[in-house]
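Researcher: Let's continue the batch. This sequence belongs to Plasminogen receptor (KT), and it's 147 residues. Same format as the previous ones, please.
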Amino acid sequence: MGFILSKSMNENMKRQQEFMLMNARLQLERQLTMQNEMRERQMAMQVAWSREFLKYFGTFFGIVTIALTTGAIKGKKPVFLFPIVPLGFVLTYQYDLGYGTLLQRMKGEAENILDAEKERLQLPGGMITFESLEKARREQSKLFIGK
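Model: Same format as before. Here are the structure tokens for Plasminogen receptor (KT):
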């Protein structure tokens, strides 16, 4: 009688463990999907911001370029054309970010860093552990209790 009961309990426990494992896996998959969705939305907002900024900056760049060129021709001072160069770099960067391949190049470089330069990504003092968090929590609670 005891053997049959313990066998049934073991089967139930095994099924319960499988169910919990499946549930944990499903929850993790949902969290990963949600985090990826949030990352994609943030990246889309950054690209949209860049495109919107490009519209305003492009207009500014066009007006400044016309004004500086006119001033350089009328005043016969080519030094007025100098600000066009750095402003052109900013315009080119924003265009590349909004419509070009900058994001793909950045992704490729990030993958290269993850593969070849992993040591650059290490946290100062190493990975945070439960023990280090507990130690900090205890020290912080001593400060609050001591006041």
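Researcher: Any comment?
Model: The radius of gyration is 30 Å.
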